[in-house]
Specification:
This protein is α/β, with parallel strands linked by helices. The protein contains five helices and nine strands. About 30% of the residues lie in helices and about 30% in strands. The radius of gyration is 14 Å and the shape is globular. The two termini are about 25 Å apart.
C-alpha cells in the first residue's frame, strides 16, 4: 500500500503495547499522536531516534501529544529496549507487519546488493481528530524530534 496522504484520516490500528495494554487509533481522539516507525530495537539509528524522543518527551506533553514507537519487534524486545534506554513512551509490537503495510512503510530494501523486506523509517503526526497532519519519509534520526515538535507547534 502507498503511504497515506497528509489531510486524510489515519488508517485504523490495534496493537499490543509495551505497557501491557492494546492501543487503538480511536482511543487517541482528542489528543495529537506521533507514530514513528523504526526498523529494529537497540540498533544504532533506532537508538539515536528513540533517545531523541526520550530527551524531548516533556515538550511533547506541552502539545497534548502522545508518542508511539512502532516496529516488528516483539513485546519482550521492546521491554529490554525501554529498560536499557529509559524510554518514557510506549512501543507498539507490529509483529505481523500489518500496521506497517497499512501505513505503506513495509517496503523492499537493499543492503550490500541483497534485497529484503523491512520498515522504512517514517513518522506520522496525527492531529486530535485522527487526520494525518504530517508525514516524514526517509527520516534521519538525528534531530528528528525537533522537526516533529515544529509541526506540533503549528497544530
Amino acid at each position: 500500500m502507498p503511504v497515506p496522504s497528509e489531510g486524510t484520516m489515519a488508517p485504523d490500528f490495534s496493537l499490543p503495547a509495551s505497557n501491557g495494554e492494546t492501543v487503538h487509533l480511536k482511543d487517541l481522539k482528542g489528543q495529537n499522536a506521533v507514530l514513528y516507525f523504526y526498523p529494529k530495537d537497540d540498533t544504532p539509528g533506532c537508538t539515536v531516534e528513540a533517545c531523541a524522543f526520550r530527551d524531548s518527551h516533556k515538550n511533547f506533553d506541552k502539545y497534548n501529544t502522545v508518542v508511539f514507537g512502532i516496529s516488528p519487534d516483539n513485546l519482550k524486545s521492546h521491554g529490554k529496549f525501554i529498560s536499557k534506554f529509559d524510554l518514557p513512551f510506549t512501543l507498539l509490537a507490529d509483529e505481523n507487519k500489518q500496521m506497517a503495510q497499512d501505513y505503506g512503510v513495509w517496503v523492499e530494501k537493499s543492503m550490500y546488493g541483497k534485497k529484503y523486506m523491512g520498515v522504512a523509517r517514517t513518522t506520522f503526526v496525527i492531529d486530535s481528530t485522527g487526520k494525518i497532519a504530517k508525514v516524514f519519509e526517509k527520516v534521519k534520526p538525528e534531530g528528528h524530534d525537533k522537526e516533529v515538535l515544529e509541526v506540533l507547534k503549528a497544530l
